[in-house]
Q: What sequence folds into this?
């Protein structure tokens, strides 16, 4: 078993610093900011069974990283960047947007939390159907997963061997930017419609995640950045699976061969994901948009050594 702890500080980050629009620009690139990364990495190797004919070995690894912005330019404490915010004391890719409050079961209209601040600095969770009355807030959700790792097992029995590896990650989120094109609720009748709109609101009393589908709605959800499109990137994936047969040397040597192995190998055969409508590994910097998912592949082969 190995256990490692690390801490690393990165300075002079290349970031967009906001400036007055009177200059003709909204921001310019500068080497500003400081981020601290702290984490642990664990690896456990075990021999579970070993006999003359059978062996079973396992490798388990886990990594946890926590990053935190220590400072920006020395004056600002936060910089808004699209659906994310760079804020001192928070992870680098912390999400920042309007908080979705569900669908009104009587009217089918989308709802939002106003998130006004009270005198103690706490958010007031009043509900409104007007997005203009709702305020974007700093969320306790970030793009970086809290835990990533894998589990590998290798089994051998006489001529046969089997190897399979699971990979996983938990604790991260991504924003579905592509849904800004498709979750329009009827605002763009020429655009594609996601299949999950089959479960939208249809009549009073329906408890639904998606609004009434109507031409030219009062609140077009494709024009509003909300937490409805913020999804967990938790997953467990059967990353590789390999089965092989190695012929006995007493057979191969008669043919003048030193080693003969037939095998079948597969990648990405099975995946469990917290959110089903895009692949959690086809995400970049907390954004899901037109990403190509890892391919499922099956390979057959023959290894021969003379």
A:
């Amino acid at each position: 078993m190995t256990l490692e702890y690390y801490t690393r500080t990165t300075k002079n980050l290349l970031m967009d610093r906001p400036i007055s629009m009177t200059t003709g620009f909204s921001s310019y690139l500068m080497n500003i900011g400081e981020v601290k990364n702290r984490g642990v990495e664990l690896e456990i190797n075990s021999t579970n069974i070993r006999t003359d004919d059978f062996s079973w070995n396992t490798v388990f690894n886990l990594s946890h990283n926590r990053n935190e912005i220590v400072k920006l330019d020395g004056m600002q404490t936060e910089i808004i960047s699209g659906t994310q915010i760079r804020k001192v004391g928070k992870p680098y890719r912390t999400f920042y947007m309007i908080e979705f409050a569900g669908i009104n079961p009587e009217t089918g209209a989308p709802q939002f939390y106003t998130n006004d601040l009270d005198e103690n600095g706490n958010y007031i969770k009043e509900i409104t159907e007007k997005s203009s009355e709702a305020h974007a807030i700093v969320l306790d959700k970030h793009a970086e997963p809290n835990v990533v790792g894998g589990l590998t097992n290798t089994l051998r029995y006489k001529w046969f061997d089997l190897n399979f590896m699971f990979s996983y990650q938990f604790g991260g989120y991504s924003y579905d930017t592509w849904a800004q094109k498709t979750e329009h609720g009827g605002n763009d009748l020429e655009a594609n419609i996601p299949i999950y709109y089959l479960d939208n609101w249809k009549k009073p009393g329906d408890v639904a995640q998606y609004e009434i589908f109507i031409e030219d709605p009062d609140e077009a959800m494709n024009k509003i950045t909300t937490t409805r499109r913020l999804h967990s990137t938790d997953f467990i994936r059967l990353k590789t699976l390999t089965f092989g047969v190695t012929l006995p040397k007493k057979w191969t040597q008669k043919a003048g061969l030193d080693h003969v192995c037939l095998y079948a190998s597969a990648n990405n055969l099975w995946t469990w994901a917290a959110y089903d409508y895009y692949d959690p590994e086809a995400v970049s910097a907390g954004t899901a948009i037109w990403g190509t998912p890892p391919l499922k592949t099956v390979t057959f082969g023959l290894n021969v050594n003379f």
Summary: The chain has a mean pLDDT of 91. The longest strand covers residues 27-50. The two ends are 38 Å apart (CA to CA).
